[in-house]
Amino acid sequence: MSVNKNLSKLALNVNANGDVTEAGLSATYTSNGYSQGRFTSNNFVKNIFTSNNYVDGNFTSNNFLTTTRDLYQHKSVTKTFTVTVDSKSSNHRYNGTGSANGFKIDGIEAPIITLLPGSTYRFDQADSSNSGHPILFYLDSAKASAWTAGVTTNGTAGSAGAYTEITVAENTPFTLHYQCSAHSNMGNAVNIIGLETETLNIKDSAGSTVKTIRGV
Length: 216
Description:
The chain has 216 residues and is mostly beta strands. It contains two helices and 15 strands. Helix content is 4%, strand content 31%. Strands 6-5-4-8-11-10 form a six-stranded mixed beta sheet, with no helix packed on it. It has a four-stranded mixed beta sheet with strand order 7-13-12-9, with no helix packed on it. A hairpin with a 5-residue loop joins strand 1 and strand 2. It starts with 11 loop residues before the first strand and ends with a strand.
């Protein structure tokens, strides 16, 4: 059977097994049916309209509406990360490069961290495994240039009360790297989202702007 319909006008029915039928037709688009995979068991209906979905759950927290965008609110808050040090595994971005040890952030091995403007992020290094591994921020993973604006350190890594914190401002670079100041490649990157961007205007010989590039 060949079906040629404008899908935007179809009235689809979905049964408890996830099979799809069009009102007024006897054809059933099952996992072994129409188009061999257009309406498969891992299909439009079951992947986009999931078990917590438009059909069964009226756009709940696990549906296509809430998973296609992230919402961030500007808040002046302090977020604390608990830092420990352990031997690197294959999960570490720089495994096999630099130090044999790496940082864990809240138990996760050297994650890439997303930071927001206006907030302060404290890297708590009170755990004794941090001894000799103070965290600082750099413009590159090789630590050629340190970033110190908005950065505060307190105490000695591995001792009670020790931390490094950074307050993200509009002039903070989009990407920084948290690394041990004494050893190489123990950490990873932090990405700043929501910053205002610079604008580059390209002008011709008469001084007229011919192209504007944002985000530089």
